[in-house]
Specification:
binds magnesium ion; 341 residues; binds adenosine-5'-triphosphate; Rossmann fold; 29% helix; alpha/beta
Amino acid sequence: MHDEKVILQVNDLKKYFSLRKGFLSETKYIRAVDGVSLELFKGETLGIIGESGCGKSTLGRSLVNLYNITSGSVVYNDGDQKINLINANEREKKDYTKSVQIIFQDPFSSLNPRINVFETVAEPLIIHQYPKEVIEQKVSEVIAQVGLRDEHLRRYPHSFSGGQRQRIGIARSLIISPKVIICDEAVSALDVSVQAQIINLLKELQARYNYSYIFISHDMSVIRHICDRIAVMYAGRIVEFGTKEKVLNSPRHPYTEALLDAVPKISNRRSKGKRKILSGEPPDLSRERIGCSMFERCGYRIDACQTTPMKLSGSRNQHLTACMRTNEIELNGLIIDSKQL
Ligand SMILES: Nc1ncnc2c1ncn2[C@@H]1O[C@H](COP(=O)(O)OP(=O)(O)OP(=O)(O)O)[C@@H](O)[C@H]1O
Ligand SMILES: [Mg+2]
């Protein structure tokens, strides 16, 4: 279980993509991540859930410095070293990249088909110019950690199953001993039994090495199995944040309720009223808005929701929600006792 040291602190992070329609026309912005703040504790798994296009991958990629962020701050602090990604120098950026790694969604396209497993896994060490003997030893260690064998090292990605390829991807992320790992839909492309194996592997590695995970998924049943706390994202923002028990059993935002309602029956649900599955399209991220971004799709809306600024409220690291009506409405969650969670 995690201790309460904050290893990654994200404040009001924004990542806008500019979209220019034509010559001389005004630049529009896609607000893919629009003011996300969160704290990741050392050794915990923080889930990020939300529908397609809500900005999860953009957030993940911003956190591993694959995108230049538009504004906000990201501070990494492992006790020995504190790095503020925004004003980091080249050396600090390199250290940051070593400490915060990402595992991608698609084990089929994320591996280079032209290089064998050894070279794939060793590449980060080669980039960081480690000596040859160290590289060989580390590859051998890490390949065993993810449940592959030395004889796999000379083979090419096409000769592996999806689950094995994801293990190769994980080995590649682990090889430079990161502290934080962002898993972006790391098991979504795998079938259910292989998903369970990879989730168990990630959990075992966490128990052994105290990794901190940010686990991005659109699948509530996966999030439920691996996460300690959950951030629910909608249209570039976090709309609910809390422990897994709180968010799943007593959601405080209508969007979370809708997500939970879409989960195939995983327990004795309170079956009260109609299903809340969201209808309508996700909002246009290039449109600036003042009020709640879910307004058009929300069954609980009142006029004021459209004009009251959206704000994630509650005391720090408690159960937070961005719904201004949260104390007036009663939402349905899942009833799962803590042993089942
Ligand atoms: N490089 C880019 N240029 C312009 N727009 C982008 C870019 N990358 C993402 N977007 C837009 O930003 C929004 C968020 O995309 P993102 O990939 O972060 O969503 P996601 O939550 O990861 O979705 P999914 O569940 O489908 O993976 C989308 O509207 C997307 O079209
Ligand atoms: Mg994505």
